[in-house]
Design a protein that fits this description.
Layout lengths: L1 E5 L7 E4 L9 E10 L2 H8 L2 H6 L4 E2 L3 E9 L11 E4 L2 E2 L5 H4 L10 E2 L11 E5 L3 E3 L6 H4 L2 H11 L8 E5 L3 H12 L4 E6 L2 H9 L4 E4 L5 H8 L5 E6 L4 H9 L1 E9 L11 H6 L3 E4 L7 H11 L8 E6 L3 H9 L5 E5 L3
Parallel strand pairs: 11-12, 11-14, 12-13, 14-15, 15-16, 17-18
Antiparallel strand pairs: 1-2, 1-4, 3-5, 3-9, 3-18, 5-6, 6-10, 7-8
Helix pairs in contact: 5-6, 5-11
């Protein structure tokens, strides 16, 4: 089969012929239809410091996907050939304290699909049945391919109650854009998103932002004044990993405000801890998705009319992966999809 492979410990990805994955007794074999390019994939392609520590070549990369089940292991129940599925890319041990308590997203032994084991940028992928999400209602394949990052957005956005709240989102990348749509759909009063890319800010307006603010020329305080907010934001969703973004968010939160942080900083940085303490601000780190409560919430949100179509701005056949990765690396659009049926 064809697959995108990190063949060597150097920058690049290579389209190569590799053996089809074998299916164990508790696994499912999936014929891949669409995949989404993630920031993690860009890091692996660039072979930066993180990738050099996290990845061992050769490796089939990719973890955002959808496809059709073609084979199930002998111990698999509830999933059958022909089912349309997506996959949870965090593979957990199942035996640690958190796994046994149903908190699998907190497993300390998590292995990442396409990072710690062969992934989904291929014509076929094998996955443990417990990591397979069956789409019981019709979902557009492009949307089904991005359930993994959509789950990041839902997990982050729904960490705190949003009805009637004023929400600040720092970072209008693909997950930030999806969080805008979720916050608006969930009943937030105002949803303000910040970035330095006008293209991404325009996408944020399309998916429902009350105000899309280019912080290269305006401040979050300016945004507050424009909306008539007097006490600051109730909920913050930090999606950028940018130190300045978090500091500015903290400076514009109301007393008792709550911040969910998904953005991953490249290095340590200082924040105003005195403000956090005296304003009684809650900081909550977010990683991945709650398995599988977040997945249920995603499906329900889509059934309820949430529209993510504007977030997808690039579609390519898998043979055009170089152009697709270049598009994603520009950092000015939304999600980029690879079609493995073309």
């Amino acid at each position: 089969m064809k697959a995108l492979v990190k063949e060597k410990a150097e920058p690049g990805l290579w389209l190569a012929d590799v053996p089809e994955p074998e299916t164990g007794p508790g696994e499912v074999l999936i014929q891949v239809e669409r995949t989404g390019i993630c920031g993690t994939d860009l890091h692996i392609r660039a072979w930066d410091g993180w990738a050099q520590q996290a990845v061992s070549a050769p490796l089939v990369v990719g973890h955002e996907f959808t496809g059709e089940v073609v084979e199930t292991g002998r111990d698999v129940t509830g999933i059958k050939p022909g089912d349309r599925v997506s996959g949870e890319g965090h593979l957990v041990c199942g035996t640690c304290r958190n796994c046994l308590a149903g908190r699998r997203h907190l497993c300390r032994a998590t292995v990442g699909l396409g990072v710690g084991r062969d992934g989904a940028f291929a014509q076929y992928v094998a996955l443990p049945a417990e990591n397979v999400w069956v789409h019981r209602t019709p979902v557009d394949p492009d949307i089904a391919a991005i359930f993994d990052p959509f789950g990041n957005a839902v997990h982050t956005a729904l960490s705190f109650p949003l009805v009637g709240e004023d929400v600040l989102i720092t970072g209008a990348g693909p997950i930030g854009l999806m969080a805008v749509a979720v916050a608006r759909h969930a009943g937030a009063r105002n949803v303000v998103v910040t970035d330095v890319s006008e293209e991404r800010l325009e996408l944020a307006r399309t998916v429902g932002a009350s105000l899309a603010l280019n912080v290269s020329g305006a401040s979050i305080a300016d945004g507050q004044r424009a909306l008539g907010l007097r006490e600051g934001f109730d909920v913050g969703l930090e999606m950028s990993g940018n130190p300045v973004a978090l500091r500015d968010m903290l400076a514009n939160m109301t007393h008792g405000g709550k911040i969910a942080m998904l953005g991953l900083p490249a290095e340590e940085f200082a924040v105003d801890w005195a403000r956090i303490v005296t304003s009684m601000i809650t900081l909550k780190g977010i990683y991945g998705r709650e398995m599988f409560e977040t997945w249920y919430a995603m499906s329900v949100l889509l059934e309820g009319g949430l529209d993510l179509a504007p977030v997808i701005t690039g579609r390519y056949g898998y043979r055009d992966h170089e152009a697709a990765f270049a598009d994603a690396a520009r950092g000015r659009g939304g999600k980029v999809i690879l079609d493995w049926t073309a």
